[in-house]
Design brief:
heterodimer; A: 383 residues; alpha+beta; 14 helices; 44% helix; B: 102 residues; 5-stranded mixed beta sheet; 3 helices; globular
Amino acid sequence: MEKFELPDPFEGAREQCGYGKVEDQDDPVTMLLRLRDVRKTAKNTQTFQSGAQPGRIVVPSEVNIRSTRQIPFEVDPPMHRLYRDLLEDWFRRPEKDTYKAQLSDIISKLVQEAKSKAQVEIVNDIALKLQSRALTLLLNVPLEEAETWISWGTHVFRSEDNPVDGDKAKILYDYIDRQIEKALSNPGDDLYSILLNSEIEGKKLNKEEVKGVMILTFAGGRDTVINAVTNTLAYLSSNPKALPAIKEDPTMLNTAVEELVRYFSPLTHMGRVATEDTEVCEHAIKADSRVSLCWASANRDPKTFENPNTIDLERKLNPHVGFGFGIHKCLGATHARHVLRTLLSVLAEMDVKLKMVKGDSNIEDWGEFKRKVGYDRLEMKFS
Amino acid sequence: MKKVTYITQKEEAKTASASSGNLMELAIANNIEGIEGDCGGVCSCATCHIHLTPEDFETVGGPGEIEEEMLELEDNVSPYSRLACQVPISSLPEQITVKVAN
């Protein structure tokens, strides 16, 4: 049985100095590696802004492929709060029983399908389909729409030889433009229509603002969810006692999902731009330079997490930052949590046994740090 | 059975009873505004921030190290702040009134 592991490449630098340096399209980034620094910086939205040039807080930078501001993610207070308030109720819909039942149906069908095959490639045949079909619930659009998104492949910006592929991104932007026009001429109860009909301080959101929310919804929850689902299945295959334990005690579902999110840290880091000369961790940060909040490193900080490199599905105190921290914490977290809870719950209920056949690791390259975030391909058997 | 009265930021009071669980779970079960409990009680989201009275804080006890680090960076923090998910019902006096911080 192959051991599932996502090693922590940040350990040495986190302990020695607390930061690392990454080159990125002539706009270098100082990665902050300690949980305390990451949290404090995330909270200090005045000195470390998100509302810089659109695409700049993302690493690798998307300034060359995007002019639309992602909302509310690339907006600072006080406007941030107005956008966020507008969106929070919608993004809490995954708590509703009907949503949960539909999600369970989507996942059960995929698992049944996988069981009926001799072998299945998880990334494309399970994770991408699951992510896309589940997203139809979040957007409240017909399930068939997922087929278009599945046809785009696992990443909307990245192609094999280019981490920020403008041509590929254009497919998504053009698609969203078309959906906005459709919703304008024929409003329904989908997210596009709801947003187009929303107001902030008496003014309706314009098309560019709606597009900003939609790009965030598509991009933010795509490879992150795909990696989380893929890693969950890989982990379960090397820990066959996990599913029976969850079946025996379903209250474990919550701690299990939080722990998997901590350990996987599906999004390695997210940037901010300094608005003034400052310092973090006794390291000078120049005004208008970039730092990143390295969630993946913070989530293995031994100052807070006992045995940080061990997955403990019953970890009771787990102050992880897998969904970010502060006012910009992941808007899709409720949806993502329910995707993972439902996946574990369906697999446990169906007594599924998983066997890993072959996996090609997906390794991100952040200068001195090489981080495995999941798999490019993963062959498994379901029984 | 312990009786808990939650006072929201809108000054609305709601009383609920429980004999087990924690103050976050009880609040969620009773739809208390301002308590979200996103992380389900593992001390990761701080969306269940409450204020106790000084007397109740004395009885119930202060936050542990991890909870304190979370509270340190929260808005509206007071010397009597706690995360409701870390306060077991069993640690409470028979009746208690808590204020929702956000």
